[in-house]
Amino acid sequence: xxxxxxxxxxxxxxxxxxxxxxxxxxxxxxxxxxxxxxxxxxxxxxxxxxxxxxxxxxxxxxxxxxxxxxxxxxxxxxxxxxxxxxxxxxxxxxxxxxxxxxxxxxxxxxxxxxxxxxxxxxxxxxxxxxxxxxxxxxxxxxxxxxxxxxxxxxxxxxxxxxxxxxxxxxxxxxxxxxxxxxxxxxxxxxxxxxxxxxxxxxxxxxxxxxxxxxxxxxxxxxxxxxxxxxxxxxxxxxxxxxxxxxxxxxxxxxxxxxxxxxxxxxxxxxxxxxxxxxxxxxxxxxxxxxxxxxxxxxxxxxxxxxxxxxxxxxxxxxxxxxxxxxxxxxxxxxxxxxxxxxxxxxxxxxxxxxxxxxxxxxxxxxxxxxxxxxxxxxxxxxxxxxxxxxxxxxxxxxxxxxxxxxxxxxxxxxxxxxxxxxxxxxxxxxxxxxxxxxxxxxxxxxxxxxxxxxxxxxxxxxxxxxxxx
Length: 469
What we know:
Blueprint: H1 2-22, H2 39-57, H3 68-75, E1 94-105, E2 108-121, E3 125-131, H4 140-146, E4 149-150, E5 153-154, E6 161-168, E7 181-184, H5 185-200, H6 206-223, H7 232-241, H8 243-274, E8 278-283, E9 287-292, E10 299-303, E11 309-314, E12 318-320, E13 337-345, H9 350-355, E14 358-365, H10 371-383, H11 385-391, E15 396-398, E16 404-411, H12 420-437, H13 440-458
């Protein structure tokens, strides 16, 4: 008990000082304090930043951050970018700077250029990033409209998604091409880079931490940004002073979170059974097959094979594309499958769940589907949009996106439960009740969308029949 009280007092001290640091009002930095570069020197600094940016993003580089910075960067992209790829596994990602872009006409290269950064998973998706500090945009229209090949690879080979980002100074015009999402250096530094350093610096090699600080300082200097509103150095010193206490409580929570990310299906099904909303048909380490008491909505899989993607899908919403009568509840070896379903993002949305007390449930047209299947689901969904919207509860809404098509939010209230995880499961139960158990109208529409799409794309008529004993 004494150790627990000491830990509590130390964390309170840390919290008070942290609040003081984060409450410091913004003080604009004098332009005289900003490092001035000659044109030649500034250009060298910009090239250095481009290369250092690519270095940090590349999981293969020896910075010891693996894919953590890349994942935070991708998760932090502005909503206008529309980036919705599964980034839990980034083992195949390729990051390069100064990547050649070409236009092929009649088999010949007729024009070329170099985009500052390219992040891509071959044959799946790419993100082209143009970095600007002072000059105005003259290239984005060409990069998006005319370019046919990225580093010699046809753009058409990327089946999942194509994304474009224009990172520029706050006082400069946006990209000329409307498909490029605009993001300012100020927003990137304040919403991604600074938080990443504060949250993670003690875990990385000193050399990497120093480079991250220099990276931040150089961006601020070149773009003329003001001093940060928070004192990063003092925050890190404060973190280190209380490291043992923070590490103790953090490790405890991380262990509990890791366990929960794999056993939430059993907790959710147990709550549903207690609430007389159905029965458990089968249960394994990562899967629960749940039979809803409402026969009109059928049987449902709760799947936790990923520490991020918590899948909730109807039996029959996941099939093999070669034999659509073959119902699946996991990916086949040949990866030829077509699926729709609900999901919650445990890792991706963790900060939102913890800090804001909000669980988000999505209905998703899965990104790993064939592009023809994705397009057909989207078309059938749009055709029934009015009926779908009428079937949704107040907590849910249509997103207008091609992948995450429905979004619903539920409060996580730990004070009303024994702990945070029990509150999370309660929010899941509410969501499942709203969207599935008590909503046969919505499920019937989604059934029709899936069966119509399978018939259209794969030429096979299927029906949604309840799972038989």
